[in-house]
Amino acid sequence: MSFSDIKRALFVGLLFWLSTPTFAVDCPATTDEILAAQEQAIADGDFLRSRVLTNCRPQSIHEKALAEQVDLYVPDTTIRRLDGETENTDQGVAVLLANTFELLEGEGVALFSDVILLLEVIAVLVFLWTSVKRYNQRHDATLGSHFTEGEVSRVDFVHAGESRYFLASYGYAVRGIDYYGGFNVSGFSEYGFLMSTDEILEKLRKKYPAGYKVRVFYYKDDPTEHWLHKAPTKWAIFWKAVIKPLIVLVIVLVPLEFVDLLMTLSGRGTRFL
Hints:
Layout: H1 3-19, H2 31-43, H3 47-53, H4 61-69, H5 85-103, H6 107-138, E1 147-160, E2 163-174, E3 177-185, H7 188-191, H8 197-207, E4 213-219, E5 222-228, H9 234-272
Antiparallel strand pairs: 1-2, 1-4, 2-3, 4-5
Helix pairs in contact: 2-3, 6-9
């Protein structure tokens, strides 16, 4: 047999040895146990088992003892899984629920109230900051530097529920965009209740005919905010700046106060029980 044949035979044998299937075996826990198992496999002539044992990860005696103390020790094998996963998950859920109920009682209620109080303080601070910002943005409107001419389009009698009044509708344009509004017209107080509604309406339509001119002062960044006849006062600007943030503040605070009341009553009921 030539030297090349010997090399070819060794190469084929190496491929056969590497291609043999790996068998799953129980890995001993410690290095000493792994070495003892390998020696026993060699003595028994089971070289395949000896090779598989070399893939086992050793675990020290201290690690094994610590794991056994908490009932979580499972030998590191290639075919076994941790049997306590489901039980540990159930225990974790139970602990979480217990902590949640404990939080909702006693000091937990006080903590929840403190959180609500903090949210309310933040809401008030945001309201103040927004209102001041909106007021400063509209302050120039008091100078009357932004105004335009509007025209009355019609006068109508409005009867909505218990309310009865006369309304003059008008329109105005700013930078090529049309806007519309309306203002109340004193009809009953000016002409008395001895005249019929139609007679008063006829007089008001003569007083404010279609095309009647009105001067409109507006906020330059939002012309829908406007005032008639003269520039707005600082008090009028204040209400324009505050009204929207105030509505938002009320919408935020009312639910928070309601939840805080429920939590407080729930805490008292728990203590009485």
